[in-house]
Amino acid sequence: MNRLPISLLAILMLVVLPGCDYRILERIGFTYAASYDAAPQNQVEITVSIPRAEPTIKVKRELHSAIGQSSKDARIKFANETDLLLVNGQIRVLLYSEALARKDLSNEINSILRDTSISPLVKITLVNGNAKELLSKNYKQHLSTDKYINRLLEKSSSNHRIPRTTLYEFERDYYDDGIDPIAPILKEAGEDIAVDGIALFQDYKYIAKISNRDALLFSILRGKFKKGDMSLVLSRGEDGSSSEYIMFTSVLSNRKVHVERRAGGTIHVTINANFKGSVHEYIGNKKLSVDAQRHEVESKVSEIMTESANRLVKQLQLHKVDSLGIGIHVRNSMSYEAWKKLNWREEYQKVEIECKLHFKAKDYGKIR
Amino acid sequence: MNTETKEKLSPFHTTILVHMIQTGVMALILPQLLAETFGTNGWITVLGFGLIATINILLIGAVYKLGKGRSIFQILEQSIPKFMLVPVYLALAIVWSMLGCMAGKEYILIFQMYAFPTTDPMEFKFIMDLLVFWLLTKGLYNITKASTVFFGLFVWMFLLLFFFYTDFSWSRLTPFLFKGGHFTYLESMDIYSSLLGYEVVLLMFAYTNKKTKFVKSVLIGNGMTTLTYSYLSIVTFGVFSLEQLKNKAFPVLEMLAYIRFPFMERMENLLYGFVLFTVLFSILMYEWCALEVLKQIFPKLKANFLAFIVMLTCFLIAYIPKTLNEVGDWLSTLSMIESGIAFGLPILLLVVLMFQKMGRSPAHE
User: Fold this and answer.
1) Fewer C-beta neighbours within 10 Å, C or N terminus of chain A?
2) How far apart are the C-alpha atoms of B117 and B109, rounded to whole Å?
3) What is the pTM of this model?
4) % of chain A beyond a pLDDT of 90
């Protein structure tokens, strides 16, 4: 039969077609991280970090930066400086300076959203200070800076020091009418990079910040999670030194939001969060193996956490940022028409929000 | 003569084939269309559309039962003179071949957004058409067998939806029913067109016998498509927020991009390649239909030659629309006509059958 010509044709195609789009890996610059800074006249300064894997040169990465009207504009400029074909497919981290984010990130975000080559898993991060400097600097005791930042963010979000903020989540929360986006903030700390806190956005505009200290608390209030650790001073002694101190880890947390309409039309929201953890460190005079005494410690933790949670929520309300997604629950508790009539941004400040946190020590280590 | 007229379709093969024809490029856009047209919880409407398709299939089933398994050509030609049917056949052939052709081009253009953007899309189209041509010349029975194999290559992708369980949130679905959408008939037709493909079975009557359990198998195939589409849509609605979904050109592709294995990231190009398996059968079966009709017009010409002519014409016409939007417009128009055919043709056939019955009954007396 006519098997032979067909197989010959197939082989010919296999041989010829790979030549259609000819690319050599070593000549492609896979941008790994990019930073955005505000520049005069409403321009942006973009810096990209591209890892290089040429055995003949010592350089580990290439850095380029340019100022332009938009990110793509700047891109075209620094594409002239490199012999590599720049591609966006492997971008892992996008760093924005706080100054730029305070203006508005919508242009930058929309431009990366349109680009089909950029992954929805790229991490959105703010930088306290100059983003270019943070990315350009080499940190002696760490990996190449771009990879260092990426791994730092991955690790920190896995134990909930910072929320996981990929482009997908950032965009999703932007478009959802009952929640506002958030992003972690990094800063340069001498020879290291450190997590500085959580940035709270109103749409694509950076409004306020949660300090590092409240990060886990924020995660507890934001939703269900596993893993994380926390230390807490339960009471201070007479001379100011901490006389009772607790540190727990492997936190498992679960949140429930209850919305209620009180007389007079005020919306009352109760956030019930239960979290469990293993006590790894306890300094104090109570015996954790004794049920009553352990419960005392637990309720003390709950009390302190509830108090800080209420303070944190007040702070969020003050800045009109619904980063906890309370709007979603309020929306789901009412009719569509009523929700559309409600100006949530304004109403949010008036909502009574009450947090109730309950801590349970799952275990208390090897000491009784 | 080829042997396929003796071999009859098995129920399993028929079900899989119908499912494979129905699923296609439209699945990638479906959730966006649902969000745009129906707003919150638009995924529910997929079940409604599935029901409409079911009614349509029952209509076809009625033709099958009343016609006692005769092919639609036999039914038509018994009552209507051939010269009147030829233009109808020709029109059907054009719609079906174009539909297959445009579905293929759409797939390629979407593919090129992600990979090989500078290659001429027609190079891909050529390879695709070659594959379609080869399958086309093998006859229906072999096509169904191939579709079962390709189904196996494609169906595992369904498991990928598990990846989204962590990001899925019921509260994002909202308790509202169909709010915040903008309903237009045109867009709902587009949504319906994602289920089209089952009407192809109209031409398969001659390839079936009692053992095929024809109507039942087609219904199951359609049920599978409806359920998979609803499941896909509900996951999409829970993973993306509504306004975000409205803004996405290809939400399902975006979801594929989100999948990440510890050893690999950004594999949507690879995964998208697997979608080809099902798209291929949508194209193939429409071309097959066109071929079947053409065989009736030109009974003297060799089937393989006709197949070649069909594929060549398609390939040449695919040069005309250049952009994704143009292809989308062509596809919309063609699917609208196709929806008309899907309902119109069985109704016409039923009318013809009714007349035949009326004409025949006095003769018995």
Assistant:
1) N
2) 9
3) 0.89
4) 35
Of A175, A177, A328, the CB nearest to B171: A328
For residue B251, tell me if it sits in a domain.
yes
A53 band by pLDDT with thresholds 50, 70 and 90: confident
Residue A330 contacts residue A269 (beta carbons within 8 Å): yes
**B326 alpha carbon, distance to own chain's centre:** 20
Please identify which residue in the block is written with the tokens 């006692």. Answer: B68
SS3 at position A232 = strand
Read off the tokens for B91: 């029109």
- Chain A residue with CA closest to B250: the answer is A116
- The range of the structural domain enclosing residue B29 comes to 8-341
Report the percent of chain B where pLDDT is more than 70: 97
What are the C-alpha distances in Å from A350 to residues A261, A268, A272, A340?
13, 9, 20, 17
Contact B73, B296 (CB under 8 A): yes
Number of neighbouring beta carbons within 10 Å of residue A205: 15
* Separation in Å, CA A187 to CA A129, A148, A196: 7, 13, 6
The three-state secondary structure class of A243 is strand
What's the rounded Cα separation, in Å, for the pair A62 and A80? 13
Residue type (1 letter), A165: T
With an 8 Å Cβ cutoff, is A170 touching chain B?
no
Query: DSSP label at B264?
Result: B
The predicted structure's pLDDT at residue B364: 45
Q: What is the pLDDT of residue B96?
A: 94
Q: Burial code of A344-357, b = ≥16 C-beta within 10 A, e = fewer?
A: beeebeebebebbb
Q: Do A172 and B240 touch (CB under 8 A)?
A: yes
Residues B224-271 have pLDDT tens digits of 999 999 999 999 999 999 999 999 988 998 888 888 877 777 777 788
CATH number at residue B223: 1.20.1740.10
The first and second tokens of residue A88, run together, are 């966006």
Query: B85 lies in a domain?
Result: yes
- The reply to whether residue A175 touches residue B242, judged by beta carbons under 8 angstroms, is yes
pLDDT tens for each residue of A197-230? 999 999 899 999 999 888 888 888 888 888 888 8
Evaluate whether residue B196 is within a structural domain: yes
Give the pairing of strands A61-68 and A43-51.
antiparallel
**Does residue B357 belong to any structural domain of this protein?**
no
Structural domains of chain A ordered from first start: 23-211 (no CATH), 223-368 (3.30.300.210)
Closest by Cα among B12, B347, B19 to B211 = B12
B172, B175, B254: residue with CB nearest A176 = B172
At which residue do the structure tokens 């309370």 appear? A326
Query: What single letter denotes the amino acid at residue B269?
Result: N
Lowest mean pLDDT among A70-84, A148-162, B101-115: A70-84
Tokens coding B100: 């297959």
Q: How near does any CA of chain B get to the CA of A115, in Å?
A: 9
* pLDDT of B365 above 50: no
What integer pLDDT is reported at residue A241 of this predicted model?
61
Question: In sequence order, which residues have a C-beta less than 8 Å from that of residue B231 and are 6 or more positions away?
Answer: B161
Touching check for A173 and chain B: CB below 8 Å?
Answer: yes
